[in-house]
Amino acid sequence: MQQALIEKYGEARLPRYTSYPTAPAFAPVVGAGTYGDWLSNIKPGTEASLYLHIPFCRSMCWYCGCHTTITQKDAPILDYLDMLRQEIGLVSDRVENRIKMKHIHFGGGTPTIMQPEEFRDLIGLLRARFGLVAGAEIAVEIDPRTLTAEMAAALGEAGVTRASLGVQSFDPVVQKAINRMQSEAQTAEAVARLRAAGVRGINFDLIYGLPHQTVQSCIDTATAAVAMRPERFAVFGYAHIPSFKRHQRLIDERALPDAAARAAQAEAIAETLVAAGYVRIGLDHYALPSDDLAIAAKRGRLRRNFQGYTTDTCETLIGFGASSIGRTPDGYVQNEVPPGLYAQRIASGRLATVKGYRLTAEDRLRAEIIERLMCNFRADITTIAARHGFDAAPLLDGNARLAALADYGAVDISGGTVTVRQDHRFIIRAVAAAFDAYIDQSARTHSKAA
């Protein structure tokens, strides 16, 4: 039966559900004016998360699904950082000291492409413009191949608490096929520099489903990574969407594993990490038992946002930079994607928002159900629906997607509660999709479910 599920759902393109509704539902009807109003509606004393997108890299990794630009020059980066500072000013003028930062996340691209003094100045500006909650988390995504000792020291001095390092695979055959050569020694050196600088939380990103990848190469990579003892792992399946990411056309599709092979690779990595003492969290995260993420999962407090599984409970996310997505209690917003167009908007004194989504009461209901399924593999539909003022029956009765999963033996439905069976958790995205009112409109833009 498991093999039948892999064959049916493994090739299906489904959201990762880091938001609901997902980005394909965003529309231009929500623009800069609407976002300005939403910022003004934020209540005083609100604890918020900030996301800053740095869309530059020195070279292109062919598997990459991020919005990024390749540059060998520093001038475009400096110009962009100037626009980022202006955007921070525009937003802070509208929220008028009504938020306090609890989480700050620098994503990319490669955030550490900026110089150490530029990073220090940016953190200083955020501290000056927004209040900072005691014990706030500051996280940065890092390419270990380009992290200098000076930059590592600057991260520590700026109060960075967590660093996410891209590893993907240590297999040189796979690395060549994705245009990302990165040795174990380079990665270990980056970890050592960060720990010496006082960055206490280290995350590794691994990927399965890459060209020429095998179960054994996945095990070997996970074993080598475990030896460096990061606090967390995020393990993602490669999303091959060359129609949207043209550089992925450089990958030999004939070398990509099929759905069954991808599932075997994912499970091999999981078994290796669990055997090394990591706790399996949700669909694709792993953490040491003492890590905050593992503790949150154990206590039923796990959340999910654009960075994946998280301890972040903030309902307000302020996004800065080209393509960045934010959220207020009213809905989602996204900035202009191309850095040039983003810069034009900011330079004119306008917010860069070009699309978004205004949340409805039903959206909030479905969002909570999907988040509980993704985090806990279980959702009490009756209780959640009642809390939002809805009847649970329409969500369960006549739900063809859910009924099909129940027929396959993937879920149990009892007393209004949906539970994903232990040995079918790999299909959780398909279970979540059963409660997605927009899934048929957006499926082509998402990654494979297994």
From TrEMBL:
Residue ranges annotated for the Radical SAM core domain, each copy included: 42-276
Catalytic activity: coproporphyrinogen III + 2 S-adenosyl-L-methionine = protoporphyrinogen IX + 2 5'-deoxyadenosine + 2 L-methionine + 2 CO2
GO biological process, one term: protoporphyrinogen IX biosynthetic process
Cell compartments where the protein resides: Cytoplasm
NCBIfam families named in the record: hemN (TIGR00538)
Assembly: Monomer.
Protein name, entry field: Coproporphyrinogen-III oxidase
Organism, scientific name: Shinella kummerowiae
